[in-house]
Design brief:
By secondary structure, the protein is of the alpha/beta class. The chain has a single domain, classed as Rossmann fold (3-Layer(aba) Sandwich). Helices cover about 50% and strands about 20% of the residues. The chain has six helices and eight strands, in the order E-H-E-E-E-H-E-H-H-E-E-H-E-H. Strands 1, 2, 3, 4, 5 and 6 form a six-stranded mixed beta sheet that branches. It has a two-stranded antiparallel sheet with strand order 7-8. Helix 1 links the parallel strand 1 and strand 2. It is globular.
């Protein structure tokens, strides 16, 4: 059986961590999974994979350009196999924030949907499964300008503003549940895994 491809595009590395977690979850369920960084990989042949899970971080309202290019180049193949998309953004952290007002929650949800809609429009791809995933504030990895900008965004979003440390907002349990659902669907579609 062919492996599941977990393809990611990231800037500071948190989406790589998410991709590795997804692959590890799949392996625990009896699948073979290969993680591929779209920034560093040579040509990828999707015919070598039974299914695909794509994960991309969002910066300034847009998904990573490597992911956009990958999807545009491989849209037909992605539509022919079980495929899912993980959109990693701080806006999702705002949408998941328990103490957000109804207005704030609605604004964050609309932001997340707007980014997804732009991705679908830019690529022409509409995956079977989509999951927004709350990202991280990696202040210690940002240069001065990015740290300044991210702190202002974090303040507006009600997120942490202490730039001396990093903050993870990813709901790992929810991500694991999403992978459980995907694993069942992939098993049914391909007859693989556990």
């Amino acid at each position: 059986m062919k492996p599941i491809g977990v393809f990611y595009a990231t800037r500071e590395g948190h989406t790589h961590k998410i991709a590795e977690r997804v692959a590890e979850d799949l392996r625990k369920r009896g699948f073979e999974a290969e993680v591929k960084d779209l920034r560093g990989e040579a040509a990828i042949d999707l015919k070598n994979f039974s299914s695909a899970i794509l994960a991309a971080s969002v910066h300034i309202g847009r998904h990573e350009p490597e992911m956009l290019e990958f999807v545009k180049q491989h849209r037909a193949e992605l539509e022919a196999i079980p495929a899912a998309f993980l959109s990693v953004t701080l806006s999702e952290a705002g949408a998941e924030r328990a103490n957000a007002t109804p207005e704030e929650h609605a604004r964050f949800v609309a932001d997340v949907q707007g980014m997804l809609d732009r991705f679908f429009k830019d690529t022409g791809w509409h995956p079977q499964r989509v999951k927004p995933v709350a990202g991280a504030l990696l202040y210690t990895k940002y240069n001065f300008l990015i740290r300044f900008v991210m702190r202002r965004i974090a303040r507006k979003a009600g997120a942490a503003t202490d730039t001396s440390r990093d903050y993870e907002y990813t709901d790992w349990v929810a991500l694991d549940h999403f992978v459980d659902e995907l694993a069942r669907e992939i098993s049914q579609a391909t007859g693989a895994g556990g």
